[in-house]
Write a structure and sequence with these properties.
The structure is a single chain. The chain is of the alpha+beta class. The chain has helices spanning 2-13, 104-107, 110-116, 133-149, 209-220, 222-248; strands at 17-22, 26-29, 36-45, 57-63, 66-77, 80-93, 96-100, 153-157, 161-163, 167-174, 181-191, 194-207. The strands form three sheets. The chain has a six-stranded mixed sheet with strand order 2-12-11-4-7-8. A four-stranded antiparallel sheet has the order 1-3-10-9, with no helix packed on it. A two-stranded antiparallel sheet has the order 5-6. Strand 5 and strand 6 form a beta hairpin.
Length: 249
Amino acid sequence: MLLPLAALLLGGAAKPQLVPDVSQDRVDIVYSFTGAELLLFGAIVYPGGRTPAHPADVVVVLKGPAESMLLREKQKVAGIWLNADSGRFRSVPSFYAVASSAPLSRIVDQRTAAIYEFGVDNIQLSPASSATPEAQRRFEAGLVGLKRKMGLYVEEPGRVRVRQGVLYRARMRLPARVPVGTYTAETFLVQDGRVIAAQVRDVVVERRGFERLVAGYAQDHALAYGLGAVALSVLLGWAAGAAFGRKRG
């Protein structure tokens, strides 16, 4: 019994190991927030400290908290744009960014990329509507295109730098409109087309100070917040009009 167990432990120890870290595990969104840059870095520990002739590739995926979404498709009827079909998604990553040491198509095949969700086209969107397959593909393409346009879905091949086959680092940008919540920074080690090691670190993105106060009030008192926003807009418009009138007079 001891020999098979020892062989198993030695076999597990013979695999390379990842030692990842992030430059900050908390990002605070304040009034002047214009975005943030995260540095994901770490080391690859090979058995016996010997780097192979062909070092492994590194893929880093930064994923935001899941959210449900409803997309509406507009159609032009009699010169007027109206809501037509709609597509609902049960679970969509609010943010997704992938960086790799080489183009993903050179690192893994399509099957492996789909299993590990490497690449925007391989994100599992969990549709919840009863739309036809053709309509569903159209809504998925529209959702991904919208997220790309907002800077919330990003692909950066070659962004991961690997030094001497051991130390790696990648800079990933969080835009100003980044959603709040707990993010996962996943690091994958890929060799000969197979994922041989993986590690995860959490990064918390949250509002602080005045931003947090306003967001909390808007969520807990939606009606009052909406009426207050309308009243403030009317007041500012009236004040601007009055000031402009006095200036002309």
